[in-house]
């Protein structure tokens, strides 16, 4: 499958624009136009089991949630001694999404340099109950050993498009590809041009020959993300029909 969605869905600039006035449930509305979404709120703190159950129930069959791992793991503990926090995260209700649960995203802070032993220990701590995607933001992760580690554990290396702020690595390390589009020319803000979306649609189609693709528009701040996601989804459908 090729799935295209957005990073989160609750943003004020989307209201009265992507979300028509009077929409009662924004997630339901988004799920009628797109087939996946990243849950970003889990990065900032735990959600209740009832949240996951509601999200599961208000979205159509086949919809998929990627869930962002907590920043206590990635940013506070910086991947060290995380087993207890991982257990709490998975006990919070995330598995209640059932077949609608996609990969768990681990976004590594830009200040964290590559450390082979640290990455090895972290990957070993990840549970096998879900698929995982690993997004890095320091140049030291341009490293063949990292690719080998992720491949051995079946963890996707996130392709993170951005306007030159962080590295954009691309390596096939497992049977799915995870793409995050953070903004064409301005981080979190700028729209993607037709030319840029055509390029990404072509790459997504190529990656799809090797497995599933999850693509998320993260240019959310001024309302570009949902419209760009719809445009990208339309392009990927045309290339695979």
From TrEMBL:
Gene3D superfamilies: Protein of unknown function UPF0759. Transmembrane segments: none annotated. Coiled coil: none annotated. InterPro entries: DUF72, UPF0759_sf. It comes from the Bacteria. SUPFAM superfamilies: TM1631-like (SSF117396). This is DUF72 domain-containing protein.
């Amino acid at each position: 499958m090729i799935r295209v969605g957005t990073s989160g869905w609750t943003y004020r600039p989307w209201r009265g624009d992507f979300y028509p006035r009077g929409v009662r449930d924004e997630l339901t509305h988004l799920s009628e136009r797109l087939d996946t979404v990243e849950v970003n709120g889990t990065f900032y703190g735990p959600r209740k089991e009832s949240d996951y159950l509601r999200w599961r129930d208000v979205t159509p069959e086949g919809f998929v949630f990627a869930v962002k791992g907590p920043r206590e793991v990635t940013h506070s503990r910086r991947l060290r001694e995380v087993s207890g926090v991982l257990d709490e995260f998975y006990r919070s209700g995330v598995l209640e999404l059932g077949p609608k649960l996609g990969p768990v995203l681990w976004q590594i802070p830009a200040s964290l340099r590559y450390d082979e032993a640290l990455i090895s220990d972290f990957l070993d701590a990840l549970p096998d109950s879900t698929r995982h995607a690993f997004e890095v933001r320091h140049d030291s992760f341009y490293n063949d050993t990292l690719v080998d580690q992720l491949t051995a554990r079946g963890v996707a290396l996130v392709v993170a498009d951005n306007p030159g702020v962080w590295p954009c690595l691309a390596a096939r390390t497992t049977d799915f590809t995870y793409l995050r589009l953070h903004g064409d020319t301005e981080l979190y803000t700028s729209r993607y041009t037709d030319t840029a979306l055509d390029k990404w649609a072509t790459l997504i189609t190529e990656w799809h020959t090797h497995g599933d693709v999850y693509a998320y528009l993260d240019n959310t701040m001024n309302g570009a993300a949902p419209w760009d996601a719809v445009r990208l989804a339309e392009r990927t459908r045309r290339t695979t029909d």
